[in-house]
Specification:
The protein is an alpha+beta fold. The protein has 13 helices and 19 strands.
Length: 566
């Protein structure tokens, strides 16, 4: 996609508006977050207030039932007197559909409405819970009366004779009365208030009670009934309204009842949404004006100088080497760019000379590569001639030759991994010892700072280390299972020192004749690196100490302690 200067100007203008938009967005977020918390607190407060009123209703009902359960006409289970007593008491309790007294088997002994039934209520859960509670009122669940067929919420209390329950007094809250009390609260527009029993059956609901009373709360909301504590949640209610719902679970007072109050999000955020639309319109207008001004000023202050620079470059490309922008740095930033371009054009000729010098350098590198290849071939030839000398076992010589070539290859690999001029002492030693670690386990202990070697020093050190490993396998510490080799190195007072010590092996004695390996060790460590190598043979095993001037080692790649070698 081609971006013209005008589009770039618009992009810059738009970028300058981003902080303003960010501030507006943050302000919008904080406003909505604050309003969300306010609505949540309000919804939870309404739910708690309704729960408190229900708790008061339950407490009042318990007081009534306690008084009835202790009345002599009730404890005696005299049907005539009990019925008259309850009938006189009922008008003072309009929120009860009826009051009844039952024996411990669940058969009705008297009712406030005088109705007689032979049906046992002993299978009702609230009846069984009341007998078990022994004098404490229990709140039942949504129940359809077997006598009147009307739904209600029963309260039950056992009639005690000493420690024994002889009957149960039951009252039932009229759900129509409970719904009317909810309507009297005058809820806000599109708000909701729901009361349900412990099973999630709705006892009262505003609005639309006819649609919800007697039905179960949907499964996705049932977790609210058994929640540990009261809280709030954003939901889409069954009537399709998005609400912030405050809820009180059945575990809180009044125990056994669930209460929730919902506040419509659309209504609660109406003022916030209006302010958002207004601010958005103002922001769009302000942004449009800013973009228009940016376009006009960009064409005048930016596009003209840039076109002049572009034309100058095109002319120079066409062959007019005398063409200049004639701009100076003191005229402005873009003009400073034009002046730099003029200077750049003047440097092109010097760049041609530098390219020629680069070609010469590449030629020199080619010769250097040829020289290294010749040296490598000469090394291979020397290894072959010494390894396959007359009288030696061919298979043994071939194995030795292969190992020496592997060590030579590992050493050469150090020079081509990401650079061709340096490798560390650790890398050179690891490349040589890795062949002997493969089938003998961890037998080498390498310790020293990360000192970088020149390419020649890395190759020489790796080859010499291979020969020391070969001798250790044949005659030294690596020829026995428990033998180990310790290698320490470091720089001190301008001298590089490396110590090779074999431990746990057989006693070492000087060889009868000096073989190729020994000559390579002395030639490489001493001759090629300009140092000296001291080989020691003793009862504790073989050791070698090598010293060389630090000039053979390019640098210390990372800070680390040196190793003093005695």
């Amino acid at each position: 996609m081609r971006l013209s200067l005008g589009l770039r100007t618009l992009a810059i203008t738009g970028a300058t508006l981003l902080p303003v938009l960010g501030v507006l967005a943050y302000s919008e977020y904080t406003l909505r977050d604050s309003r969300q918390r306010e609505v949540e607190q309000l919804a939870l407060s309404v739910a708690r207030q309704a729960a408190i009123e229900l708790d008061r209703l339950a407490a009042g009902a318990e007081g009534v039932l306690q008084a009835i359960a202790k009345a002599p006409v009730v404890t005696s289970l005299n049907e005539e007197l009990c019925t008259r007593y309850l009938g006189e008491l009922k008008p003072t309790l309009p929120h009860f559909t009826a009051i009844g007294v039952f024996d411990k088997d669940g058969y009705s002994r008297c009712r406030s409405d005088g109705l007689v039934t032979t049906t046992s209520f002993g299978d009702r859960r609230y009846f069984q819970d009341a007998l078990a509670a022994k004098g404490h009122m229990v709140i039942g669940e949504y129940t359809v009366s077997r006598v009147t067929g009307k739904p209600s919420l029963p309260f039950a209390l056992a009639i005690m004779a000493g420690d024994n329950a002889v009957g149960v007094v039951v009252s039932a809250i009229d759900l129509d009365w409970l719904g009317a009390s909810l309507r009297a609260r005058k809820l806000a527009d599109n708000a909701s208030l729901t009361i349900a029993d412990r099973n999630g059956t709705i006892l009262a609901r505003e609005p639309q009670p006819h649609r919800f009373v007697g039905n179960k709360i949907p499964d996705q909301f049932k977790s609210l009934l058994t929640a540990d504590t009261a809280g709030t949640v954003n939901v889409r209610s069954q009537d399709g309204t998005d609400r912030v719902l405050g809820y009180v679970p059945v575990s809180e007072a009044p125990t056994g009842l669930y209460v929730s109050a919902g506040i419509s999000r659309n209504d609660a955020f109406a003022a916030v949404n209006t302010a958002t639309r207004r601010n958005l319109l103002i922001g769009l207008c302000a942004g449009g004006v800013s973009i228009l001004l940016g376009w006009l000023l960009g064409n005048r202050l930016l596009r003209g100088p840039v076109l002049r620079i572009s034309e100058t470059i095109a002319g120079r490309r066409a062959g007019n080497e005398d063409l200049r922008t004639q701009m100076t740095a003191d005229q402005g930033d873009i003009e400073a760019l034009g002046a730099e371009i003029d200077a750049y054009m003047d440097e092109l000729n010097r760049a041609r000379v530098e390219r020629e010098q680069g070609e010469q350098h590449r030629t020199m590198l080619t010769h250097e590569l040829s020289h290294r290849v010749k040296n490598l071939l000469a090394t291979v030839q020397a290894i072959a001639s010494q390894t396959f000398r007359s009288g030696s076992d061919f298979k043994l010589s071939l194995a030795t030759f292969n190992e020496r070539l592997t060590a030579l290859g590992n050493a050469q690999a150090l020079l081509v991994l990401d650079r061709a001029d340096a490798a560390t002492v650790m890398e050179a030693l690891s490349s040589a010892t890795s062949v002997f670690e493969a089938d003998r386990g961890a037998r080498f202990r390498l310790n020293g700072p990360p000192i970088a070697l020149s390419s020649e020093a890395a190759l020489s050190l790796a080859m010499a280390t291979h020969e020391l490993c070969t001798n250790a396998v044949k005659y030294g510490a690596l020829s026995v299972p428990d033998g180990v080799v310790e290698v320490d190195w470091g720089l001190s007072e301008g001298m590089f020192r490396l110590r090779w010590v074999e431990r746990g092996g057989p006693p070492a004695s000087p060889p009868n004749r000096q073989g190729f390996g020994s000559r390579m060790i002395e030639r490489v460590l001493a001759g090629e690196l300009g140092g000296k190598a001291q080989m020691r043979y003793g009862a504790e095993g073989f050791s070698c100490i090598f010293e060389a001037p630090g000039a053979a080692f390019t640098s210390i790649k990372a800070a680390g302690p040196g190793v003093d070698v005695d």
